[in-house]
Amino acid sequence: MKKLTLLAFLGLSAIAFAQDVKNSPDKGKQKTALIVPTEQKELEAKKKAAEEKAKLPKPYDPKADAQADINKLIAQAKKEGKNIMIQAGGNWCIWCLRFNNFVQTTPELKEIVDKNYLYYHLNYSPDNKNEKVFARYIDIKEKQGYPFFIILDKNGKMIHILKDSRVLEKDNGYDKEAVMKFFKTGDI
Q1: CA angle, corner 103, sides to 136 and 151, nearest 5?
Q2: Exposed site from 61, 127, 153, 182, fewest CB < 10 Å?
C-alpha cells in the first residue's frame, strides 16, 4: 500500500510539474531563452571583430620567403646599427592587426620603432606556417599565442622573446605605456 501511494504521489507530482511548465509565460522554453541572448552576443561580437579586421591593414605576406627577408634585414641592421623586431602572427589574427595598427598610428611608438628597429611581420597561417624559420627561435611543438615578438640584435642573434603579448593589452587594444616600455627596453 505504501508503495502504491508513493508511486501515485510521484506520478501526480510529475503531471503537476509538467502543467506548471506548460502554463508558464515562457512555455517551458526558459533555457532556450537564456541561451539565445548569449549566442546572439557572441555572434554580434564576432561580426564586430570581422568588420574591424576588414578595415585594418594586412602586414603579413604568406607568400614571402621569410628567411630570405630576415637575412636581408640582418645585413641592413648591421649597416644601420639597429635591432630587428619580428612580430609573429597573421592577417587572420585580430590582435596582430590591432598591434600593427596601434604602432603605425601612434606617433611616439612609430618614432621609437623607426629609430631603433627594423620591423618584420613573420607570417603564420595555413598557407605558410614558416616552420623552419619559427624553429630557429621557438619550440614549434608548443602552442603559441599571437602575436608574439622576437627581438634580434644587428647580427641576427636572438636577444629576447615576448611570448605573451597580453601584458601589452588594455581593454580591446594595447596599453601605450607598456608598449613604449617594451620597445625602449626590449622587455616588459
Answers
A1: 20
A2: 127
pLDDT tens track for 14-49: 454 445 444 445 555 555 555 567 889 899 988 998
Query: Position 50: which residue type?
Result: A
| Cell numbers at 179, concatenated | 608598449
pLDDT tens digit string along 86-100?
999 999 999 999 999
Q: Which three cell numbers stand for residue 88?
A: 609573429
- Say what the pLDDT of residue 172 is: 86
What are φ and ψ of residue 147, in 5° steps? -75, 160
**Cell, residue 33:** 531563452
* Residue whose C-alpha cell is 619580428: 86
Specify which residues 158 forms β-bridges with.
152
- Find the length of the chain: 188
Please name which of 58, 133, 62 lies closest in space to residue 100, comparing C-alpha atoms. Answer: 58
> What's the pTM value of the predicted model, to 2 decimals?
0.78
Q: Is 52 exposed, middle or buried (0-12, 13-18, 19+ CB in 10 A)?
A: middle
